[in-house]
Amino acid sequence: MDARTLDMRTDPNFANTLESLETPCLVVDADRMEKNIARLRTRLDALGVSLRPHLKTAKSVEAARKVMTTPQGPATVSTLKEAEQFAAAGVRDMIYAVGIAPDKLARVAEMQARGIDLMVLADNVQQAQAIAAASRAAGSPIPALIEIDCDGHRSGVPPYDRARLLEIGEVLATGAELRGVLTHAGDSYRGGGPEAQERFAEAERKAVVEAAQALRAAGLPCPVVSVGSTPTAHHAKDLTGVTEVRAGVFVFFDLVMAGIGVCRVDDIALSVLATVIGHQREKGWILTDGGWMSLSRDRGTSKQPVDMGFGLVCDVNGNVLNDVIVADVSQEHGIIAVRPGSNGRLPELAVGDRVRILPNHACATAAQHGAYHVVRGTSHDVEAVWPRFGGW
């Protein structure tokens, strides 16, 4: 049965305990999730900026409602499918935080015509011209932000390239609606400890604020000054000149975030429930039904000091089994083993026992599943099923 048809405990087909769920499946610890959300909100309140949560990790209306300030937003999305799904659920204020492909502007204009304030992103004149042309065709200006490259990580206008910045700004201001500037400190995912993260956060802030000042000095509007990454959101000391912070994976966290010190392993709210299906005792293996189709192939911790393989293994209550990882995967098989070079011990698990596997990358792992099964702490009671969606 499609998870979308389940109505919690009122549906006779609702699997109401971890033991009754079909595996592999996605589990969310609501207690941990709510603490993670409260932690960042408290921090940003103290810095005097608003949170525009990135919903690309959750891709779920129910999960989004837990993190957004209001049911209408604000929010950040990474696909137009997300924008359309959240718009259908009542969200009205969104940033599509990926450089716009011109052929997608018709969908943006259609949402704009329905009263959805969907800001798009540009970092070159060709994109800006396409946004302006789509605005003229629609008879209504499409709001746009200029992406700023604060660290050479990916896309964006370097803050020192004033000519390019102002040219894009002029095209948007005269043909569409220039709403402001946006940046993302992608280098923060390299880690480096708290002092390095504070430097990444300040470089992020400085780049986007300087770009905003340059636009304003040229007589161009810049009401929005948007920064965002989960690591810098948790380490910024000063956000003067910034109007909002975008972050997404902080809702669930994952092993990559734990590996760079943004959270503890015990803060990770997302796991994959899997069932033991066999053993290869002479090899020190336990086999589960949680292969890469449920965990993803993401190996985000492989370059960190502690390699967690394809995920860190917990017992069914969510308690970490120290140095026990998913060492290898095939499509529908997971191989649990002791992490090489560690002092861990393989647990005694019988065929039919269940484990929960913490993911390297919450976004990639969640993308393998159609729903979240919501529990609290060590309870095995499933209190809700939250459908999630994919696509573009």
Brief overview:
The protein is of the alpha/beta class.
Plain-language structure description:
With 392 residues, this protein is an alpha/beta fold. The N terminus is likely disordered. The protein has an eight-stranded parallel β-sheet with strand order 2-9-8-7-6-5-4-3. The chain has a six-stranded antiparallel β-barrel with strand order 10-11-14-13-12-15. Helix 4 packs across helix 5 and helix 5 packs parallel to helix 6. It starts with 24 loop residues before the first strand and ends in a 5-residue tail after the last strand. Helices cover 29% and strands 23% of the residues. It is elongated and about 70 Å long.
What general outline do the C-alpha atoms trace?
A: elongated
Any idea what the radius of gyration is?
A: 22 Å
Query: Fraction of residues in helices?
Result: 25-40%
By DSSP, the count of extended strands is 17
Main β-sheet description: 8 strands, parallel
Average pLDDT metric: 95
Strand content: 15-25%
Structure classification: alpha/beta
Count of helical stretches: 11
End-to-end distance: 24 Å
List the main descriptive attributes of the protein structure presented here.
six-stranded antiparallel β-barrel; disordered N terminus; alpha/beta; 23% strand; elongated
